UniProtKB/TrEMBL annotation:
Residues 894-1074 form the P-type ATPase C-terminal domain. Residues 504-529 have a biased composition (Polar residues). It comes from Phocoena sinus (Vaquita). The keyword Magnesium applies. Its cofactor is Mg(2+). This is Phospholipid-transporting ATPase. The active site is at residue 467.
Length: 1082
């Protein structure tokens, strides 16, 4: 990786213009102009970086770049100036411009804009928005037949067969019966059209089912039922529990008294965790549903975009004094294709149809073509050129006498059997057989082959791109380790924690009763209290309580009421432990809360303002939630400020990744070492800390925090700065370790795939720390390999430096986030992909669905290798469609050339049909059962797979060898028959054709590496069919002659001469240069 990727710099004249622009804005002075000045200077720096060489050092980066050659944006190869560039480049530019102009005229896309959506009044929308219908079909009634035929005949092989078949309608060119050409071609087309029609009809049924789903729409006159496809922007839609959200909406109201609900997003981002969504407070406070029409309110929403993790908008109510304004974020949105998991929700539709996040993140399906088909297509072109050359030679030998062009075409048709149509038939049937074998494989029960045209692609893969959640992992978290610094608890010592917790709470309860008797006032937190070494019991107590309080988990109780009810009373709910489930946006937090329940401290209730814990003795502890700071990818930690209702103590709890927490906790000498130990075990670590606050400290913080949240400029930075003022000298409580359960046999499977030569990339929407941990625990990254975590970059300059740092690493896995990846691909696509392809493993986290598909396409374009994508969620569909082979979980044709020096066919009518079908098809087709090594041997030595990816079975060398064999055998058959025939020309047909059929059967036998009993049956069946048909082919054969010994010895002699040398050569090759697998099989 250290070697420099060659870049070809060219100077640009952009520097002068950018310098003038910078000078102009630098004169703006203080105030708003100064702000614009800094912004434009950043843009100018970015523009200047566009022309910088990638391998510049940090020192050079800081110097003046005027002495450096420059790298223009979006350019990989060097531009060649002069006449060559003017002619080639100018012509290309002109053609591209014209094509782009025509495409823009024909497919003028509507510009996406921000919108104002009035609640319940779709007619107020200023612009027309797309219908809310789902369409996954590739064709319609009018385009189906033309589309399918185009997909078939855009390949030269099929187009060649079509032209040859159509030529037989011309009397002057007709050399045989029409059925000899049209029957095989018609069979192939009929199978293809039938298969496409079935797939298209299934897609139509699925689309119709989704578009016909009924939803309740809230109107001035009450609720009405509408189809999903009839929903418009501005409609107020009611969605029940376990119902799919039909379009992108802003969350207005819910039946849950907390004003929030959970949704399942597994079909959007692939994560099975439930996400907490919060209703707009202004509409949630309204007394009844009908009041939504009594207010004058609207939502301002940003223009539709791809990012499913962000949203910017505002909610405004104009009829109040003063008008109410609420900022809207991602937690107030409900994206289409997600499912309501709790309660009933009401939302206002803001995006429909093609403008929804889920549809924008879905790519159009493409017709996948196997590498074998592409290679055969190229070889067919080579054979066609040979066919044309041979025809020209024949016409030349005739001296171009008479209508020579007619003779040329007839020779072309006679030699057309050099490219046998049986090749197409056998290929399609062989693929279908491979697909059937995969579905019937006992080792992978339940596997369904959706596409029968690319099963052979599984043998040519180089890059394997996999999702994480649900694919490599079960997404089931199990608490494994609690470390307090001096003592560590594992799964076998959890009972000690339970006993210490029980003793601690019993002592606390007795002390509290004593304090109540003496009327002692609640103790205030004293930040200046002297530090006293705590007992292990009290430290365990503090750690477990912190874990039980610092989270975003909500206990959910299933209702006993009827399924159709939308409002429940508390009397309808069962609050027993058996009926309680925990829901959160992260499975880590659920595992932590389940663990605190197992040791005796149970979370029994939670809403937006409070939570309740039950102690081992059954006492209920109530905590008021004062502030919650959610986890972000930037902060890598989350926190909560709570007040104990019994003691009035205010405590700030925080947990997060070790890299984020190590700087905010008090000095210690064990955290870094223990985090490393747990990470090596494949555990996901969280550092837990706390800080006691006085009432004065909290009030001061709250004032500053609320003021920061009202800021118009740099709100995020100001809020973060206020929160960071609390994150100082926090008391380190514990380190937790949680294990994400891997799928069965993931580790040996990945090891085997790596040994087979496949490069594995993990593309996930999960957090960076989680993805890195799973990459190590699943052995995607081996324990001896280093991991380079690509730092977050937002500009070209940062990407420039980080790529330089990455280039200096050797044999290390790469971990990069989706945002940083986007920046790198924008400026350094070619360089980044080339560096990443040299890594033994790559992990991309926080990937959007379209990003996954983009990465697949980049690998295909830059490497030309075959890719396979594996995923389990709706967010993986685009990636699976883009890959050459998608998992949601070799053949060879033998042919001989037959010709004669006259423009009439030697073998006419049924002889050619029989040769292409019943005489030779079964043995060739039986080759799908051939095995070079046993399946058990292939699993034991996965390195053998590397030979398949090289494609030697159908390389140019292999192709030329078979062409030479065909020429040799064709020459022997014809020359021998002509030499040995005596009086009747018809004997030439009998001798040569019989020898041809026998040669074909013997060549199939020569190709076989491992015999199967069905292969022997196919050989004998074909021979039996030919012998039996001789009695009915009086018009082609002299039956009395073929019953003589003369016929037998002549056929035998020709067959032996055509096949025996090849058998001898094969035997010598296996002895002198045996294949790699032969040593294992022996």
């Amino acid at each position: 990786m250290a070697e420099q990727i060659p870049l070809y710099p060219v100077r640009s004249a952009a520097a002068a213009a950018s310098g003038k622009r910078a000078a102009y804005f630098s004169a703006a002075g203080p105030g708003p102009g100064a702000e614009r000045s800094s912004r434009y200077q950043l843009e100018d720096e970015s523009a200047h970086l566009d022309e910088m060489p990638l391998m510049m050092s940090e020192e050079g980066f800081e110097n003046d770049e005027s002495d450096y050659h420059k790298l223009p944006r979006a350019r990989i190869m060097r531009r060649k100036r002069g006449l060559e560039w003017f002619v080639c480049g100018g012509l290309k530019f002109l053609c591209t411009s014209c094509c782009d102009w025509l495409i823009n005229i024909c497919q003028r896309k509507k510009e996406l804009k921000a919108r104002t959506v009035w609640l319940g009044y779709p007619e107020k929308c200023e612009e027309k928005h797309p219908r809310n219908s789902i369409k996954n079909q590739k064709y319609n009634v009018f385009t189906f037949i033309p589309g399918v035929l185009y997909e078939q005949f855009k390949f030269f092989l099929n187009l060649y067969f079509l032209v040859v078949s159509c030529s037989q309608f011309v009397p002057a060119l007709k050399i045989g019966y029409l059925y000899t050409y049209w029957a095989p071609l018609g069979f192939v087309l009929a199978v293809t059209i039938m298969r496409e029609a079935i797939d298209e009809f299934r897609r139509f049924q699925r689309d119709k089912e989704v578009n016909s789903q009924l939803y309740s729409k809230l109107t001035v006159r009450g609720k009405v039922q509408v189809k999903s496809s009839d929903i418009q922007v501005g409609d107020l839609i009611i969605v029940e529990k376990n119902q799919r959200i039909p379009s992108d909406m802003v969350f207005l109201r819910t039946s849950e008294k907390a004003g929030s609900c959970f949704i399942r997003t597994d079909q959007l981002d692939g994560e099975t965790d439930w996400k907490l969504k919060v209703a707009v407070s202004c509409t949630q406070r309204l007394p009844a549903l009908g009041d939504l029409f009594s207010i004058n309110a609207y939502v301002y929403a940003q223009k539709p975009q791809l990012d499913i993790h962000s949203f910017e908008g505002t909610f405004t109510r104009e009829d109040s004094d003063p008008p109410i304004h609420e900022s809207l974020s991602i937690e107030n949105t409900l994206w289409a294709s997600t499912v309501v998991a709790s309660g009933t929700i009401i939302g206002v539709v803001i995006y429909t149809g093609k403008e929804t996040r889920s549809v924008m993140n879905t790519s159009n399906p493409k017709n996948k073509v196997g590498l074998l088909d592409l290679e055969l297509n190229q070889l067919t072109k080579a054979l066609f050129l040979a066919l044309v050359a041979l025809s020209v030679v024949m016409v030349t030998l005739q001296g171009f006498s008479g209508p020579w062009y007619r003779s040329l075409f007839r020779f072309l048709l006679l030699f057309s059997y050099i490219i046998p149509i049986s090749l197409r038939v056998n290929l399609d049937m062989g693929k279908a057989a491979y697909g059937w074998m995969i579905m019937k494989d006992e080792n992978i029960p339940g596997t369904v082959v959706r596409t029968s045209t690319i099963p052979e692609e599984l043998g040519r893969l180089v890059y394997l791109l996999t999702d994480k959640t649900g694919t490599l992992t079960r997404n089931e978290m199990v608490f494994k380790r609690l470390h307090l610094g001096t003592v560590s608890y594992g799964t076998d010592t959890m009972d000690e924690i339970q006993n210490q917790l029980m003793n601690s709470y019993s002592q606390t309860q007795s002390q509290a009763s004593g304090n109540n008797a003496s009327s002692t006032p609640p103790r205030k937190a004293q930040s200046s209290a002297p530090k006293v070494r705590k007992s292990v019991s009290s430290r365990v107590h503090e750690a477990v309580k912190a874990v039980a309080l610092c989270h975003n988990v909500t206990p959910v109780y299933e209702a006993r009421g009827a399924a159709g009810e939308t409002e429940f009373t508390e009397a309808d709910q069962d609050f027993s432990d058996d009926n309680r489930t925990y829901q959160a946006s992260s499975p880590d937090e659920v595992a932590l809360v389940q663990w605190t329940e197992s040791v005796g401290l149970t979370l029994v209730n939670r809403d937006l303002t409070s939570m309740q814990l039950r102690t081992p003795s059954g006492q209920i502890l109530t905590y008021c939630i004062l502030q919650t700071f959610p986890f972000t990818s930037e902060s890598k930690r989350m926190g909560v400020i709570v007040r104990d209702e019994s003691t009035a103590e205010i405590t700030f709890y925080m947990k997060g990744a070790d890299v984020a927490m190590s700087t905010v906790v008090q000095y210690n000498d064990w955290l870094e070492e223990e985090c490393g130990n747990m990470a090596r075990e494949g555990l996901r670590t969280l550092v837990v800390a706390k800080r006691a606050l006085t009432d004065e400290q909290y009030q001061d913080f709250e004032n500053r925090y609320n003021q920061a949240k009202l800021s118009i400029h740099d709100r995020t930075l100001k809020v973060a700065a206020v929160v960071e003022s609390l994150e100082r000298e926090m008391e380190l409580l514990c380190l937790t370790g949680v294990e994400d359960q891997l799928q069965t046999d993931v580790r040996p499977t990945l090891e085997m795939l790596r040994n087979a030569g496949l490069k594995i990339w993990m593309l996930t929407g999960d957090k960076l720390e989680t993805a890195t941990c799973i990459a190590k625990s699943s052995h995607l990254v081996s324990r001896t390999q280093d991991t380079h975590v690509f730092r977050p970059v937002t500009s070209r300059g940062e990407a420039h430096l980080e790529l330089n740092a990455f280039r200096r690493k050797h044999d290390c896995a790469l971990v990069i986030s989706g945002d940083s990846l986007e920046v790198c691909l924008k400026y350094y696509e070619h360089e980044f992909v080339e560096l990443a392809c040299q890594c033994p493993a790559v992990v991309c986290c926080r990937c959007a669905p379209t990003q996954k598909a983009h990465i697949v396409k980049l690998l295909q374009q830059h490497t030309g290798r075959r890719t396979c994508a594996i995923g389990d969620g709706g967010n993986d569909v685009s990636m699976i469609q883009a890959a050459d082979c998608g998992i949601g979980i070799e053949g060879k044709a033998v042919f001989s050339s037959v010709f004669y020096f006259a423009s009439v066919p030697l073998y006419q009518g049924f002889l050619m049909v029989g040769y292409a079908t019943v005489y030779t098809m079964f043995p060739v087709f039986s080759l799908v059962l051939d095995q070079d090594v046993k399946p058990e041997m292939a699993m034991l030595y996965p390195e053998l797979y590397k030979d398949l990816t090289k494609g030697r079975s159908l390389s140019c060398k292999t192709f030329l060898v078979w062409v030479l064999i065909s020429i040799y055998q064709g020459g022997i058959l014809m020359f021998g028959a002509l030499v040995l025939f005596e009086s009747e020309f018809v004997h030439v047909v009998a001798i040569s054709f019989t020898a041809l059929v026998l040669t074909e059967l013997l060549m199939v036998a020569l190709t076989v590496r491992t015999w199967h009993w069905l292969m022997a049956v196919a050989e004998l069946l074909s021979l039996g069919c030919y012998v039996a048909s001789l009695a009915f082919l009086n018009q082609y054969f002299d039956v009395p002659f073929i019953m003589t010994m003369t016929f037998v010895w002549k056929v035998s002699a020709i067959t032996v001469v055509s096949c025996l040398p090849l058998y001898i050569l094969k035997y010598l090759k296996r002895k002198l240069s045996p294949p790699s697998y032969s040593k294992l099989s022996s």
